[in-house]
Amino acid sequence: MSPTSRQLDLLGTVLRLVVGGVLLVAGALKVTNLAASAFAVRAYQLLPYDLAGYVGHALPVAEIAVGVLLVLGLFTRAGAIAAALLLLAFVIGIASAWARGLSIDCGCFGGGGTIEASRTAYPLELTRDVALLLAAAWLVVRPRTAYALDTRL
Amino acid sequence: MPRPDASAKIAAAAPKSSSTKVWLAALVTLLVVGGIVAAVVLGGRKDSPAPGATPSGSGSVSGSGQTSPTPRVPKGASGFGGTMVVSQGKAGAPTLEIFEDPQCPACAQFEHVFGQVIEDMAAKGEITLKVHTMSFLDAMLKNTSSTRAANAAFCAADQGVFRAYTDATYAGQPAQEGKGWTDAELEAFAMRAKVPDLPQWQACQKALTYQAHIAELETTAEKAGVTSTPTILVNGKKLTIDSGDPAAFRAKVLAAAQ
Predict the structure, then answer these.
(1) The CATH number, out of the four listed (3.40.50.970, 3.90.920.10, 3.40.30.10, 3.20.20.190), of the domain defined by the range B21-256
(2) What is the arithmetic mean of pLDDT over A97-112?
(3) Using CA atoms, how far apart are residues B57 and B47, in angstroms rounded to an integer?
(4) Which of A53, B51, B139, B195 makes a 20 to 30 Å CA pair with B216?
């Protein structure tokens, strides 16, 4: 038996809350310490010094904004597109750090910077972000979810 | 028979979106863009001088406001934001450069194990010894102890006891990373390092004389791709340490320089 439309809506709600909730928490943990966030971005050694600083300052705010939209179910498709782009950037960054043999903490929930090689957690970080990316992609394709603010507009 | 007009029903069934939704979208976009711009602008401005506002002690780490137009540089430093040259080696001797943060436990460990052999090599002129002091742990640990301890060490450098001072801070690191040091503890280190003119050191420390230089040192280190401490460079090349044996370390430094 194929799932009913209502069941798919509810699945969408769960995915929306998970992706939105994770981004909201990640952003909130970093927004109080933007200097550390900038340092975490620089540790990836992907962007020029100044640009990495701007990205480090902007990211927590962007994560909170996208997280709030998804949790509320407001402009779900736009929010999901933004979330998917953010997560894609994270996946690329972490994979590239791993491939280049850097030993860094992803700085996903604060912290970041170089750590001992034995303490790196690239497989875990990548698995988590790819799973969230897939969830965001689902919401881009099918943004209709239950209990969303979108349906009340 | 005329069919009932369905247009009203159709209009009612259609999403009533339009204007509310457009306004809301505009508002949300404005908030998000505004928030990001504010974070970048405000954060970037607060970033450059020492991060954080209130130190745990009484001396104040302040914004750039009161620093003099030409930033002061401690004795032995190679320019503004430049590495401290602790000792000059004989002609052709390799340059050993240590990047370290006063609050970094691994740096204390490194100095504990290799500090003596490095001191010996420097004394014999086998190496040119440079120390690049970093302070990123202030941001990570949300305190100002790295900046204050770095300033204290540079005030000691002015009186020729830079390494003695940093040795005292590493030996006196708090058991728990992040606790930092009080001003009184930093002064106790100055006495342990036998700073010759203590009142002069106190004045230098109280004014956080080298705050701008310390912030610049952090920037130059990160720009050079150093984002962790301790990082050891021999003639600019990274040295990996795989044994705790000081003799092996000395051999490796000399070999790396060939």
Answers:
(1) 3.40.30.10
(2) 88
(3) 21
(4) B195
A60 close to B (CB below 8 A):
yes
For the stretch B54-80, pLDDT in tens is: 333 434 454 444 444 678 999 999 999
Q: Which residue of B has its CA nearest to A34?
A: B43
Return the closest-CA partner of residue A74 out of A11, A13, A21, A150: A150
Residue from A55, A57, A105 to probe the interface with B (highest B Cβ count within 10 Å)? A57
- Condensed to tens digits (0 to 9), the pLDDT of residues B3-23 reads 666 666 665 565 555 788 888
Q: Enter the pTM of the model.
A: 0.74
- Please indicate if any CB of chain A lies within 8 Å of the CB of B225: yes
- Establish whether this prediction's ipTM goes over 0.85: no
For residue A76, what are its two tokens? Answer: 């779900």
